[in-house]
Amino acid sequence: MSDRTENVAVSGESAPPPRLLNVDALRGFALFGILAVNIWAFADPYYASPSSNPTFDSGLDHALRFVVALLFETKFYLLFSFLFGYSFTLQMAAAERAGTAFVPRMLRRQGALLVIGLVHGAVLYYGEILSTYAVLGLALLACRGMPPARAIKVGIGLVLAVGVVWMLLGLAQLAEGDAGGTPSSDVTAKLVGFGGDAAATLGFHSGHLPSTLAAVAALQAPSAMAMFLFGFAAGRLRVFADPDGYRPLMRRILLLGLPVGLTGAVAYALAAAYAPGGGLETFAFGLGQLTAPGLTASYVVAALMLFQTVRGGRIERALAPMGRIALTNYLLQSVVLGVLFTGYGLGLVDRLSPPVVLAVVPAVFLCQAEMSRRWLRRHRYGPAEWVLRAATLAAIPPWRAR
Asked: Does the keyword Transmembrane helix apply (predicted)?
């Protein structure tokens, strides 16, 4: 029995359509951006502190902080959120092919994602977002009957509301004379936790998880929900199944979204790199929340065009294995960064210069890309994807690819 037939027999589904390589490749691209942001939470104890790192002793250090804030921060979790919304429609289609009720499948899937996320946050990375996705996925489940046009309007409303609220908070801080803060006590706690043994690192992650989940709910959840809705609308319209049919729209997105997105990104990056911790950064963060979806959409369009034009889809095929097992790779990134920077391994927190930290990103990513390609030669799913699919189907999926 072929792997395709075996999978159909296990899941009860009719033969699924071919995978969308562009969606998998976009997930792989998103993993690169997420790694470029998350690595600083491991390597730099001052990251997300009210004060910039006082050990940054050169213009290059600050320039790299500016570039990361400009191109990566607040952009790639939005891309992942958008793809989550798109994949939600693929799950709907899979349930329809299988002739099974969609809601129980999705409840099981989100429950499993919540468990994975909480374990990930308590053990490997206190700043994790999977548990937030699990909860927001239930809200998307309630909106599953929403027409695409209405989903887009609700998403735009969320983006506007979030941006305006943060900008007003920034103005209030400035009116009170809050120009910046001093390093928080979390800096010392992270140095102790990551520079100690494995038990110290575990204690830091588990102890900071509740406060971080609250921060993620305030800082990222509303924008993530907006991108869920945008992705859901794109999935209902099957945009990635027929990207050529949306070329005029994609050109308009680049012409409008790129300059608008970069304007907000520059404002946020300048504040984050050179005036952190006060009302100016809060105001710039709000402006960035208004414009970041435009830059993220421009990334999507530019990537799709690149996939179609560079040497017959070579980049798309190279990134697709990473995205096909994106959940496993996301968790693996936390494992690798934990071994490098915390008490789980080398404890290199605050010991590498910013250029060296940034150089680690492509090295880790390229290793993951090659490992993903090799893994999928013999396995149909990544380990985390296999667990998530087993929970979704309430059945045991095939482990090996035949």
From this structure: yes
Residue tagged 């990537």 (tokens): 303
d(CA 292, CA 64): 19
DSSP-assigned beta bridge partners for residue 379: 400
Both structure tokens of 349: 């927190």
Q: Per-residue b/e over 108-129, b at no fewer than 16 CB within 10 Å?
A: bbbebbbebbbebbbbbbbbbb
- What does each of the 402 residues of the chain score in pLDDT, given as a tens digit? 333 333 433 344 455 667 889 999 999 999 999 999 999 999 998 887 656 666 666 778 888 889 999 999 989 999 999 999 999 999 999 999 989 999 999 999 999 999 999 999 999 999 899 999 999 999 999 999 999 999 999 999 999 999 999 999 999 988 887 655 555 557 888 999 999 999 999 999 999 999 889 988 888 999 999 999 999 999 999 999 988 889 999 999 999 999 999 999 999 999 888 878 788 889 999 999 999 999 999 999 999 988 888 766 899 999 999 999 999 999 999 999 999 999 999 999 999 999 999 999 999 999 999 999 999 999 999 999 999 999 999 999 999 887
DSSP 309: H
Contacts of 286 (CB under 8 A, 6+ apart): 162, 163, 164, 165, 166, 167, 168, 169, 170
Give per-residue burial for 250-270: e unless 16+ CB within 10 Å, then b: beebbeebbebbbbbbbbbbb
Residue type, 197: D
What is the 3-state secondary structure of 273-292?
Answer: HHCCCCHHHHHHHHHHHHHH
CA dist., res. 152 & res. 44, Å (int): 37
Longest dimension (CA), the chain: 71
The tokens 């390229």 sit on which residue?
A: 366
CA–CA gap between residue 82 and residue 21 (Å, rounded): 16
Q: Give the whole-angstrom CA distance, residue 32 versus residue 25.
A: 11
| For the chain, domain boundaries | 3-393
Q: Are 65 and 354 in contact (CB under 8 A)?
A: yes
Dihedral over alpha carbons 104, 236, 139, 333 (to 10 degrees): 90
Question: What is d(CA 29, CA 23) in angstroms, rounded to the nearest whole number?
Answer: 10
Residue located via tokens 């050169």? 58
d(CA 223, CA 179): 26
